[in-house]
Amino acid sequence: MPLYLEDIDNYAWNKLEAGAAAADSGFHFITLGSIDEHGHPQARTLVLRRVDRMKCVLEFHTDARSPKWLALSAHPKATALGYCNETRIQLRLCGTVELHAQGSECAELAWEKLSDNTRKTYAGPAPGSDVVSNKYHGCNTDGSGKVNFGVIVLHINLLDWCLLARDNNQRALLHYSAAGKLKNCKWVNP
Ligand SMILES: Cc1cc2nc3c(=O)[nH]c(=O)nc-3n(C[C@H](O)[C@H](O)[C@H](O)COP(=O)(O)O)c2cc1C
């Protein structure tokens, strides 16, 4: 557990890397918040797929037909929220997304690493569309979902670290440059 402000940057990114690497890790499932086309805040759980701590980037996979993809295209500001029950640490990560659709180098690289089973999840009907027939459930309808696959890359400019401890709650704000360099950090009241 970090006790010094200068340790928090390293600690938080270690935890995020562990989250991307292991399904039982505290930050494997992340809540991604964004603004929809009506200006309404939306949130959903996503698997944290990759972390680039040098660039302060989080990567998620999704279906490019999904409402979040369309919403993020119009409003690219987003917030990722994670909470680790074991350490009682919350990470709120604010930034701007880049969307990488089929045909981009980023989406191609990510698609190559997916299992056949995961690939099939992109081949069914569009997320949020009405269920018209049970026969489509879990089926690969056109052989490949590659055309629907997309990568959300979230560039973080603010990391809000919060530890809930019985007698010593702590919170720190860390700001990053567009290149992912730590610009400043400070303690704030929780
Ligand atoms: C445990 C869990 C993990 C999920 N992981 C993903 C994911 O990695 N990518 C994704 O697009 N949706 C994932 N979902 C589904 C989303 O939470 C959401 O329901 C779906 O993407 C539609 O979101 P939207 O309507 O905001 O576009 C996951 C759901 C759960 C419960």
TrEMBL record:
Entries under InterPro entries matching the protein: Pyridox_Oxase_Alr4036_FMN-bd, Split_barrel_FMN-bd
Domain Pyridoxamine 5'-phosphate oxidase Alr4036 family FMN-binding, first and last residues per copy: 17-100
Gene source species: Candidatus Pantoea floridensis
One annotated GO molecular function: FMN binding
Name this polypeptide is given: Pyridoxamine 5'-phosphate oxidase
Membrane-spanning parts: none
A Pfam match: Pyridox_oxase_2
